[in-house]
Structures are given as structure tokens and as C-alpha cells.
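Methods — Computational structure assignment.
A single polypeptide chain was analysed. Its primary sequence is given first, followed by the predicted tertiary structure written as C-alpha cells.
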Amino acid sequence: MDYISNPFFPAGLEKPSYVEVLNENSHILLKLLDLCPRYMPTDLYEKKSLAKDLGLNSILLKDERTRFNLGSFKATGAIYAIAKIAYLRLGSENNLTLEDFKRTLRGVTFVTASAGNHGISMSVGAKLFGAKAIVFLSKNVPKTFAEKLKLMGADVKFQGRNYEESMIEAEKHAIENNYVLLSDSTWKTCQSGIDVMEGYMIIGKEIRNQLLSCNSDGITHVFLQAGVGGFAAAIALSLRKFLRKDVQIIVVEPSQAKTLFMSLQNGKPSVAEGDVSIMGRLDCKEPSLSAFYSLSKTANYFMHIRDDYVMDKIRKLSDFGISTSPSGGAGIAALIYACENQLFGISRNSSPLVFLTEGEI
């Protein structure tokens, strides 16, 4: 396990011209999510027992386990991106209904690769808005997850030894059949992940509203778990708009997939090599380009943590009434490690913000 300070903060690295900038499209964000059944903010609450155990002033926990009844923050991503595509095709008309969206997306097929929850979100979003979904999975993804996707109406294809190879096959399939590739990442030939990340920003908006009614002494640190970096980049950018400038944002990855950590070290997007991590939804060996360049402006530190350490801390979280997966609780495990080793200026006066990005898998 290791960490590095971001020498490029806050100016960030200069990005190549083909990398799109992550922006907050606030004028349509809430408008589109209002069309989604069951949308409501997830809970933000203080975890006093854990804060006391760690010797902290407080801990604020944003709980994404109930998002859209799909159990993950990613429900805000693909569902929003699909709605936005329909919205733009309709010419940004007023008083749009769900039926209008279904009509304009009838016959459209969305394709992606997934290591977990993004595939669920895209499948649900496609069905909700009258489109079709095809999800490519690697051999590392459990067959039970494939069955879950099929129950949601998706066509599932097992191809590739890992997430990156599955995405190559997904992109090829989309091009050959004139389908819409909807990745949660971005690379030189695909920028659809920008819209997915834009959808994640609703989480930051919710936090801002919830803090107004929360008896908090002020957030001092934010721990954001990362795979390709989409969630971390979207939340960091959103939070930077209203948190104090001295708040420390820490990006957390598995040691077997420290692609953002290595990219920062090298000053450019870099591929990580390692075994399969138990943090399956974070086990990504290549960064999202837009996410990486955005985080080079918004994050203070990048760190990676071992599987065995995370698993041990996830088990112990049950003592505090927290039930999650290694991926969903990686940020909390990183906070515990930071407290144990007095990192990032954490002290008894600190009030960190952490995220449960998914429930038990």
C-alpha cells in the first residue's frame, strides 16, 4: 500500500485535444432524472460509533446502496446518459414525457462492457426508455451476474479475459452493427463516458443540499474509491464547487489495479498490471482519460490498498452496522488506514466524508 501527493493540483495536467472536458450540465441533470421512476436522494448520515472508534470528530457517510433500488451509485450514470441522448434527439423540447423518450429511442441498441453495476444501470435505462441493451462480460464476472442482467432484458455476451478486453469487443460489435456504445470510461475513440459521469454528479448535488440541514462541523477529507475513475472524477468536481478549498480529496484504488496512481506518477495515462482483485468493480487496469485529467485538477492524493487489508476492514465494519462489498467500502477501508498511519493531516478534529457505493455482492 502506498500514496502520493498530486503535484499538479489544482492546475492539473494539460490534456490532449481529443479528451473531452468533464462539465456539470446542471440545467438538464435534475430535469431528466425527474422522468425516472423511483428517483429520490440517497441518505447522508453521521456514523458516530465509527468516528468514535477511529478517534475522529465525525464521519459523514453517503449511502448509495438504495439508489433506484439497484444497489449502486452507477444507477445514476447510464440511466441519465440514455435519457440525455433521447433529450437531445428530441431537440430539448419542453414538457417531455417518458413516452416521448420511448418513442425516440425505439429500435436503438446500447452496447457496453461491464465488471458489475454499470451493466445493470444501462440495462435498466435501456428498458425504461424503450431501447435494447447488450452487455459484454469477461470470464472473471460471475455467471450469476449474467443471469441478473438477462432478467433485466439485456443480451449478455461473455468475451475477453478482463474488463479491458471485453470493452474492445463491445466497441467492435457496436461499430459493426451501428449500435450506440455507452461506456462508463473514455478513451481516444469513445467519449460516451462523459455523459455517464455527468449523471454521477447528482450525488454531489444531493450532498450539497443535505449538508444544509446536517449538523456537521464541516467536511475536512473525502475518500473516493476508483476503478477507471469516473465516479471519483465526477464527485470530486462536483464537491469542489462548494466545499472549502483546503478539503483534502483522496482517490483510492486496489493495489492490483493502481492505474490512476501510476498515471499520476508518470504524468500521463498509464496501464497497470496485476492479478484479479477482490474489489471487482474497481479492478480496472486502464484509466478513463477524461476522469484522469479531471482528477489531476481536483484530487490532492492518490493511494492504493491491498485486498487482504480491505477484506479485514470490511468484515469489521459489520460491528458498526455497515454491510457492503470490498468495492463498496474501499473508501472507508482507506480512511481507517489513514487514521492508523496518521496520513493526509487527519486528526481528532477531522470530519471525513466517505461513500458506500454498493451493497454486499
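Note: The radius of gyration is 19 Å.
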